[in-house]
Amino acid sequence: MARVRFFLFASYWMGWTALFLAPLAIFALAGAPTRPIRAATRLWARGILFGLRRFIGLDFVEEGREHIPAAPCLIVANHQSAWETLAFLVLVPDVAIIAKRELLAIPVVGWFLRRSPMIVIDRANGTQALRTMIDGCQEAVAAGRSVLIFPEGTRGEIADPVRFKRGVEILYSRLGLPVVPVAVNSGLFWPGGATARPGTVVVSYLAAIAPGQPSAEFLRGTEKAIDRELDRWRTAAPAGATAGI
C-alpha cells in the first residue's frame, strides 16, 4: 500500500509540475519578472506539500516560529530530505535559499528555481562557489530578504551528529546577521527515493544566535543546538529511517 501511495503522489507531482509549463512560457516571453516567478514557485511548492498530505498522509507543524525576527536573518537548518528544500519556499516565503546547481536540471522546476528565491552554487568550483554564495547572500539581505543554508552540504541520517561545512562560518562573519538554527525531522518520514510514510514533520525554530561571536564558537554552538533538538526524535526513529545521499 505504501508503494501505491507513493506512486500516486509521484504521478500527481509530475502532473502538477506539467501545469507550470504554460506560466513558464508566459514568464519567459515577459522577460522573467521576478515577483510573479517567486509567487509561482511558492504555489508549486504548496501543491507538492498538498500532494504529500493527500496521498502519503505526511503533514507538518512548526514550533518556535516567534524566534524568526522581522528583519533579515541567516537561517541554518539540518538537511535530511527533499521535504525541507520544498517546504521552506512556503514556510519563509521570501527567503533566499542556497542550493546546489544540480537542482536546475529538474525539468520545468529548474527554470523557476533559477529565477526565484534560490542562490545556486556549483560545489565543484570551490572558490568561485564561495564568492557566488557571498555575493548572492549580500544582495538578498540588501533587498530585505533572509537567507537559508543547509550547511551540512548533503542530506544525512537522523542518527548522524550534525556537522557543518565551513562556508557557513564565512557567511556568519560576512553578513553580520542573527542566526536562527532550525531542526527538522523529515528523515523519519521521507528519507529519499521512492519511500515515504505518513506522519508529521516537525520544523523547530530555535533561539536566535547573535552576530559577532568568534566563528568557532558560533559553529559549535549552532551544531549543538540543532543536535540537542534532534535528540527528541532519535530514540524513536524507526529502523530504516535514513536519508539518501
Automatic annotation (TrEMBL):
It is an enzyme of class 2 (transferase). It comes from Methylobacterium aerolatum. Pathway: Lipid metabolism. This is 1-acyl-sn-glycerol-3-phosphate acyltransferase. InterPro entries: Plipid/glycerol_acylTrfase. The keyword Cell cycle does not apply. Its EC number is 2.3.1.51. PANTHER family: 1-ACYL-SN-GLYCEROL-3-PHOSPHATE ACYLTRANSFERASE. The lineage of its organism: Bacteria, Pseudomonadati, Pseudomonadota, Alphaproteobacteria, Hyphomicrobiales. GO terms for molecular function: 1-acylglycerol-3-phosphate O-acyltransferase activity. Pfam families: Acyltransferase (PF01553). Keywords: Acyltransferase, Transferase. Residues 73-187 form the Phospholipid/glycerol acyltransferase domain.
